[in-house]
């Protein structure tokens, strides 16, 4: 039969084959379970970590909104994005005070059952429990979300997996179109200085740019004020001190409605952020901030403000706190000393760096890191050459010259408001010895006149300054043997035991 079929016409062969294919197709459709060559199914064991994070995200984390402007924001729609994707996920909105204008939620009360608005302002009737934002975080993780953000299920799942893989780190992803800058943070408590350094890696102390942050709640609860403003800058300062790193992972959350588009709104937001930053730096004692581009921002005293430390009674307050002189005060001491030296030299006065200032010049080519003032010695017979020493008052640059109420010496203040100062100490020559001219001061005593003949030059605060010709021998005479070595070894305890 097969032989007869092969000898048949070509058209017949085609019809026969098409009919056979059609019958087989109908048979497979009617009996899908029947297979000519059954293949055993291949099973892939589920990833327990991934299964847990994807199925239980609502139980795993709480969403927190803290970065927004109360006068203009996209919080309502941002919250709606999470509520729609995860109806059972708790959402906490942390406000500085009672929110006004109120958030314009379009969802029903039932949809918003897990959304809580928490005002953090002080209220007489509130309990400490109510005013503590950590009270409302009862899940294992916290997802901190900026304003105008839309959730991505896939990216959130990736973040959750990364967070469980690296439980001692924070996990961050950017928001669409945002450029994230990884930063290293150096907080120098002793020198009142905060420094940001740009880093090319993805393991950071801080992140600049709009981003979402996933952090373990237990880590957050080790911080003194995790939600202090400005946020998240204050958060990253606290995590840096505890060596908690933030890892940037791939992926992006969606961006929401654009806010703060008008110049007036941007200016208002900038002002609010700056005031919050100044308040934070005042609490922490940050006087100088060095940015990634090496620009220096000062947050300490200026000519028209009071100095950063109170009147000294024995030991300066900053030394008792384990710190050096605030850098802004050191800068102003340096400016005052430079101005006084220039004025004296222009008047033809024989002057030189005295004890503590000379010690700083020898050790550091600058004032000592813990100096409370500068000291400049002069010949008492040259006082008449400087009218400001005789009459006192403000000079053309705003420095205040005045004679001390106790003793025949002078003080030059940085300004009428800022009492940072340099001392001008007259010495009288008698029989080859320089004696203090009717004044008494710690660390000051007579010395051989030969130390001033001739005067030497020494680097001091970026300028050349006159100094005794044998500085080390001079300091040993004033402060005891090996004064320079003891200063290097003891630090401020050398002068303030």
From TrEMBL:
Q: Which GO terms describe its cellular component?
A: Golgi apparatus
* Source domain of life: Eukaryota
Supply one GO BP term.
Answer: protein O-linked glycosylation via mannose
Domain FKRP stem, by residue range, is 51-291
Question: Which Pfam families does the record cross-reference, listed alphabetically?
Answer: FKRP_N (PF22921)
What the entry lists under PANTHER family is as follows: FUKUTIN RELATED PROTEIN, RIBITOL 5-PHOSPHATE TRANSFERASE FKRP
Record's protein name: Fukutin-related protein
Q: Name the source organism.
A: Papilio xuthus
Q: Tell me what gene encodes this.
A: LOC106114368
């Amino acid at each position: 039969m097969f032989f007869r079929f092969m000898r048949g016409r070509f058209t017949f062969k085609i019809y026969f084959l098409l009919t056979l294919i059609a019958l087989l197709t109908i048979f497979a459709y009617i009996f899908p379970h029947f297979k000519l060559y059954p293949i055993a199914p291949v099973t892939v064991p589920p990833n327990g970590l991934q299964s847990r994070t994807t199925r239980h995200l609502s139980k795993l984390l709480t969403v927190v909104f803290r970065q927004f402007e109360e006068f203009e924001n996209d919080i309502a729609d941002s919250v709606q994005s999470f509520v729609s994707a995860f109806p059972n996920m708790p959402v906490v909105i942390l406000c500085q005070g009672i929110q006004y204008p109120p958030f314009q939620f379009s969802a029903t009360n039932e949809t918003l059952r897990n959304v809580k608005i928490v005002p953090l302002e002080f209220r007489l009737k509130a309990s400490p429990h109510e005013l503590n934002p950590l009270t409302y975080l009862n899940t294992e993780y916290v997802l901190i979300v900026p304003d105008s953000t839309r959730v991505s299920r896939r990216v959130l799942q990736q973040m959750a997996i990364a967070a469980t893989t690296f439980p001692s780190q924070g996990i961050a992803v950017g928001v669409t179109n945002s450029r994230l800058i990884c930063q290293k943070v150096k907080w120098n408590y002793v020198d009142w200085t905060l420094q940001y350094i740009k880093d090319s890696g993805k393991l950071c102390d801080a992140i600049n740019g709009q981003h979402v942050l996933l952090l373990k709640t237990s880590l957050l609860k080790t911080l003194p004020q995790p939600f202090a403003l400005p946020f998240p800058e204050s958060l990253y300062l606290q995590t840096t001190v505890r060596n908690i790193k933030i890892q940037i992972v791939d992926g992006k959350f969606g961006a929401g409605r654009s806010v703060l588009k008008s110049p007036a709104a941007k200016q208002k937001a900038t002002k609010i952020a700056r005031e919050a930053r100044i308040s934070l730096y005042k609490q922490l004692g940050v006087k100088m901030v060095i940015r990634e581009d090496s620009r220096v921002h000062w947050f300490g005293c200026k000519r028209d403000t009071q100095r950063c430390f109170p009147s000294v009674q024995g030991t300066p307050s900053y030394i008792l706190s384990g710190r050096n002189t605030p850098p802004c005060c050191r800068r102003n001491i340096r400016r005052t000393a430079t101005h006084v030296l220039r004025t004296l030299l222009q008047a033809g006065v024989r002057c030189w760096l005295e004890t503590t200032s000379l010690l700083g010049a020898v050790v550091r080519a600058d004032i000592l890191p813990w100096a409370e003032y500068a000291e400049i010695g002069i010949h008492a017979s040259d006082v008449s050459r400087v009218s400001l020493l005789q009459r006192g008052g403000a000079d053309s640059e705003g420095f205040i010259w005045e004679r001390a109420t106790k003793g025949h010496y002078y003080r030059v203040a940085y300004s009428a408001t800022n009492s940072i100062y340099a001392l001008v100490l007259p010495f009288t020559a008698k029989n080859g010895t320089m004696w203090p001219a009717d004044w008494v001061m710690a660390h000051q005593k007579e010395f051989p006149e030969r130390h001033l003949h001739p005067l030497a030059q020494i680097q001091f605060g970026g300028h050349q300054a006159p100094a005794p010709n044998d500085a080390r021998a001079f300091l040993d005479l004033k402060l005891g043997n090996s004064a320079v070595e003891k200063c290097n070894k003891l630090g401020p305890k050398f002068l303030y035991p």
